[in-house]
Amino acid sequence: MYEMRPGPDRPGTTVVWHVIAKQTAIALCGQQLADHMHASQAEQARHCPACMAAFAQLMAVAPLVETS
Fold it and tell me: pLDDT tier at 68 (50, 70, 90 boundaries)?
């Protein structure tokens, strides 16, 4: 399961939405995120391009199906 969490972009100049796996603080782009960030900083934020590309790759992989 994945969720979106706001955090700084790579240069640290603006806030973007990152994709993280539940129960972790590391985004799919590899960036360490704080547990909480003030919501008003993220209201108009864009999405992290690296996280979105990694998430698209994860969703494009066919699920494993067990055969009996």
Answer: low
